[in-house]
Design brief:
The protein has 169 residues and is of the alpha/beta class. 34% of the residues lie in helices and 27% in strands. It has 6 helices and 8 strands. Helix 1 packs across helix 2 and helix 4 crosses helix 5.
């Protein structure tokens, strides 16, 4: 019975972070917390088998867990960006537009890189913004190119995101 092989309290991963204290520490994240996050994100903002999630975050950053396991847990597709693509606006634009990606999660810096490269977006695209402060001037630019824009926040300790709110004008 595969379901009986894993204890939900067992560690899924350990992330080293300074968190809110500024002092480095290891955060041990149990499987149950990752599963709970994936279920919540599947409901809102929504992940489904028809999604292609552009994964642009380094695996050293905890938000990458959603980019990889989110679509895989719902039957969707992961569009992996190489580091050189994720750090170059034009290459990232080409990857997002050419792959049929339906959503992407990124920091405000990465969203600005993509916008500065002339990303046109699409009405069915969902833009997830987190990991850095979300400045007010970024919202209209993303809303003009995406059907939905979501602001995500959370420190590492509660497993990546603890809040998700849809941004509307």
């Amino acid at each position: 019975d595969p379901a009986g092989c894993l204890d939900p309290e067992q560690t899924a991963y350990v992330l080293y972070t300074s968190g809110s204290t500024g002092r480095p520490k290891g955060v041990s994240v149990p499987h149950r917390a990752v599963v709970r996050l994936l279920g919540a994100m599947a409901r809102r903002p929504g992940l489904s088998e028809g999604d292609a999630f552009a994964a642009v975050t380094t695996f050293a950053f905890d938000i990458s867990a959603l980019e990889v396991f989110g679509p895989l847990s719902t039957g969707g597709r992961v569009v992996l960006a190489a580091a050189e693509d994720a750090g170059d606006g034009e290459r990232l634009r080409d990857l997002v537009e050419g792959s049929g990606a339906t959503l992407m999660q990124a920091t405000t810096s990465t969203w600005r890189l993509l916008l500065d490269a002339g990303w046109s977006g699409s009405p069915g695209f969902r833009a997830l913004v987190g990991g850095e402060a979300f400045p007010p001037d970024l919202a209209p630019a993303l809303l003009a190119r995406a059907g939905e824009v979501w602001n995500l926040y959370g420190p590492s300790e509660p497993t990546i995101w603890s809040t998700a709110g849809r941004v509307e004008v």
